[in-house]
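Practice problem 4.
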């Protein structure tokens, strides 16, 4: 059949398939009237004797856009008199912080797939006063591979309108419309280590007490307006999800030694107030717990949980640019004399959980529900993350279960739509094989690592997402991705149809189950069969249903040893031999959760799991041969 299709037609069909979803979400809808994506001109590389930036002719073309850890400071001065509906739209890379007259307003943008950018909107009427107002936007371009903010050139595209009137726009020439001005203030130290393998750079600052004047004082002489350059075109898409909850949390206890405890783990921007009477150096450090000696360890999670401030004498209100997760905050004065007061966390969490309510006569269950809501709102900002601290990455598999929780707590699938949509937008994924999906996304994987199991969970999530949302358009758009995934797995099928010797990170569960993934891993194949059944249902593929049933039957014959399911089999003299000593508790749960086993087919095993297994099995020495 394929041989009868010309190469040109085939390319056209593939192009159409990969762009079904992007066309359905109005890519490049008219978000902006005049604004274009800009960044500081790359010819600014030196300063004159007065400390002001000068252009050179030797600047690398677009070099500033890819410079690591560079912060550019943008502002627009807007007369708030008699405005009807002033509206700010913006997007950026990597992250922005928005203030009006020196007061925090927002942080963003939402993460999106490679070469796509989500546009935020802010109504300004209640924020502006009659006369001049300063709308300030700090944008940091990280330009480094990580799992949190993908490595793409820095830019800002922003526009303030009042109806059809343009009050300010990012452009390179003023023309008829006012411009956003931009400068380099060099307040944030560029040459610093990364926070973790999964996130970009830590924060370190050199400041004087006038460091915020540029965003609140109209005549601030330190703001040297610099020329901007136009960046490459950006594919713009809607934000879709609701805006964050920025509620302030204050500590409930000062434990001594300048260690502050908050009520619970919290995620957001760390703030303090400082009155420095001499040049002062301060280090903030934090963690979610204290060790057995009551000491805070900022590197416990293989992350550098520090912020450094080098301050001239003066009064400061300081707040981190990036969000972090902590319950304990330590303030250390390394040099100088100062007074530190009013520590806080400005939350950066999901606001769409206010209707979720639960109450029972059991206070322990009530606490569990409260903790669950707290966990969800910190991990589900604009995508589903596995942790809001060290990684802030959108992991598959985690998302399968978070999708369920999100619908229960919010009553919608807005975040899940964004999460899944991000996997559909790119034409291909760099660094990993054709057909495979990234294990977490949006993210970069230059080490070419991936988890084949997690791609299967993506398919399972699609079916439940359809049941929750009714969004058949997204399911249809996902079909090329799903079929490409099936094509990826075909070369690994053995004579039984089971996947054998899969490559890269074969991940079953954080337990002994991850030690038995060589050869044929039966939990992985249970998942594979379930994925095939799901594809058969989603896309009306009865042959895949038959294939899945055959795989399940082979697993039952090979893996079940009469008492438990064995985790894996390896080749011995060319013959596939189940490793009967490799039995994990996880494998049994996989069997029932994914339908390879049922209580009706395996009543004795089901009874054992329900009655005998649990957190105290080790203490009671029940089935010690089964790894927990």
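Answer key:
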């Amino acid at each position: 059949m394929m041989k009868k299709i010309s190469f040109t037609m085939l390319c056209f069909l593939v192009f159409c398939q990969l762009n079904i979803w992007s066309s359905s979400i109005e890519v490049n809808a008219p978000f902006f009237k005049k604004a274009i994506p800009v960044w500081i001109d790359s010819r600014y590389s030196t300063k004159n004797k007065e400390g002001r930036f000068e252009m050179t002719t030797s600047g690398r073309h677009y070099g500033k856009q890819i410079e690591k850890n560079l912060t550019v400071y943008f502002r627009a001065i807007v007369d708030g008199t008699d405005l009807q509906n002033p509206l700010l739209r913006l997007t950026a890379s990597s992250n922005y912080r928005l203030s009006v007259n020196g007061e925090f307003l927002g942080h963003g943008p939402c993460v999106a797939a490679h070469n796509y950018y989500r546009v935020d909107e802010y109504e300004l009427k209640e924020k502006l006063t009659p006369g001049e107002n300063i709308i300030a936007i700090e944008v940091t371009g990280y330009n480094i591979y990580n799992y949190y903010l993908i490595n793409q050139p820095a830019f800002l595209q922003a526009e303030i309108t009042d109806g059809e009137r343009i009050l300010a726009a990012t452009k390179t020439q003023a023309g008829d419309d006012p411009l956003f001005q931009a400068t380099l203030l060099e307040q944030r130290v560029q040459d610093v280590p990364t926070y973790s393998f999964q996130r970009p750079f830590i924060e370190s600052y050199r400041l004087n007490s006038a460091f915020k004047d540029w965003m609140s004082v109209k005549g601030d002489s330190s703001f040297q307006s610099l020329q901007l350059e136009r960046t490459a075109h950006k594919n713009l898409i809607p934000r879709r999800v609701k805006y964050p909850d920025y509620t302030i949390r204050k500590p409930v206890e000062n434990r001594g030694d300048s260690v502050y405890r908050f009520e619970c783990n919290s995620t957001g921007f760390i703030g303090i107030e400082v009155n420095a009477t001499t040049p002062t150096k301060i280090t903030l450090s934090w963690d979610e717990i204290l060790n057995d000696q009551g000491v805070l360890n900022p590197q416990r999670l293989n992350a550098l949980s520090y912020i450094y401030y080098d301050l001239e004498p003066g009064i400061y209100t300081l707040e981190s640019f990036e969000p972090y997760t902590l319950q304990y905050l330590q303030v250390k004065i390394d040099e100088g004399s100062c007074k530190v007061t009013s520590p806080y966390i400005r939350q950066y969490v999901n606001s769409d959980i206010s209707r979720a309510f639960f109450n029972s006569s059991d206070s322990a269950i009530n606490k569990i529900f409260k903790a669950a809501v707290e966990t969800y709102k910190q991990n589900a900002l604009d995508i589903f993350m596995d942790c809001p601290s060290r990684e802030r990455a959108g992991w598959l598999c985690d998302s399968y279960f978070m999708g369920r929780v999100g619908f229960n707590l919010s009553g919608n699938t807005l975040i899940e739509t964004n999460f899944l949509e991000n996997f559909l937008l790119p034409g291909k994924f760099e660094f990993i094989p054709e057909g495979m999906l990234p294990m977490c996304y949006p993210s970069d994987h230059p080490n070419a690592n991936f988890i084949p199991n997690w791609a299967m969970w993506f398919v399972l999530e699609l079916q439940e997402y359809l049941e929750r949302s009714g969004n058949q358009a997204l399911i249809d758009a996902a079909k090329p991705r799903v079929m490409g995934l099936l094509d990826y797995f075909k070369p690994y099928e053995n004579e039984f149809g089971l996947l054998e010797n899969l490559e890269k990170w074969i991940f079953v569960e954080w337990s002994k189950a991850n030690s038995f993934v060589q050869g044929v891993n039966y939990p992985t194949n249970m998942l594979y069969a379930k994925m095939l059944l799901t594809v058969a249902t989603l896309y009306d593929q009865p042959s895949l249903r038959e294939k899945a049933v055959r795989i399940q039957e082979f697993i039952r014959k090979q893996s079940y040893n009469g008492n438990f399911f064995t985790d894996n089999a390896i080749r011995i003299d060319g013959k596939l031999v189940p490793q009967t000593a490799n039995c994990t508790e996880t494998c049994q749960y996989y069997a029932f959760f994914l339908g390879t086993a049922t209580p009706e087919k395996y009543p004795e095993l089901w009874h054992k799991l329900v009655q005998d297994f649990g957190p105290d099995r080790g203490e009671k020495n029940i089935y010690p041969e089964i790894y927990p």
